[in-house]
Specification:
Blueprint: H1 2-10, H2 17-26, E1 28-32, E2 37-39, E3 47-53, E4 56-61, E5 67-73, E6 78-79, H3 82-87, E7 94-97, E8 101-107, H4 108-117, H5 120-145, H6 148-158, H7 160-165, H8 168-175, H9 179-193
Antiparallel strand pairs: 1-8, 2-7, 3-6, 3-8, 4-5, 4-7
């Protein structure tokens, strides 16, 4: 299962065999069923999670008790509550599998030791976080500049895997819609296609 992670890392930085072995020793593999909770509010996030297979999401409940999805992760994506993970403080989020999933965990307790053993991993994570931050900036821009329908159409064109794999109510929550509004957009889109 470490193959996916090592391949992903090597897209950004080269690794020798010793470094690959160090990473494999420090990263744990977890097999989880659909809808398994990895993190709940009030808990401290213990790790940074790499999706080898499956799909995860992060969400919270707003003041009205409505579920709000803030992030998804599919194969070769990292996900974590980085505030809780970095500061070792209680999380405000749920982290849950959407599908049966295989994830690799880099726990906070071993992260520093691994970075000392394989210093170039800090460069890898810096590059990953830059890309993630850039994506969040674009998402904020789309939330402000595009109509809700245009936002959905852009998202479905950019991430067709998500649209096929993620339940409609979760996707609606992520995009800031009600499920009913998303149904109307999809029905309208389907009418244009047929």
């Amino acid at each position: 299962m470490h193959t996916e992670l090592l391949h992903h890392i090597q897209q950004y930085i080269p690794l020798n065999e010793t470094e690959k072995q160090a990473i494999a020793q420090h990263v744990k593999v977890l097999q989880l069923k659909k809808k398994a909770l990895i993190l709940k509010p009030g808990e401290i996030c213990k790790g940074n999670y790499f999706v080898a297979k499956g799909c995860l999401r992060m969400y919270f409940f707003d003041d009205k008790g409505v579920e709000q999805t803030t992030q998804f992760a599919i194969e070769n994506w990292w996900i974590s509550d980085y505030t809780s993970f970095t500061l070792q403080k209680a999380s405000d989020f749920y982290l849950q599998t959407i599908e049966e999933s295989t994830i690799l965990i880099l726990e906070s307790s071993v992260e520093e030791a691994l970075f000392k053993e394989v210093p170039k991993l800090e460069r890898y994570f810096r590059l990953i976080f830059k890309r993630a931050f850039a994506a969040s900036q674009y998402l904020a821009r789309y939330n402000h500049n595009l109509s809700r329908e245009a936002h959905y159409l852009h998202f479905s064109k950019s991430f067709p895997d998500f649209v096929q794999r993620i339940p409609q109510y979760m996707l609606a929550s992520f995009l800031g819609f009600t499920p009913e509004f998303l149904s109307k957009i999809r029905a309208k889109k389907d009418r244009h296609i047929s």
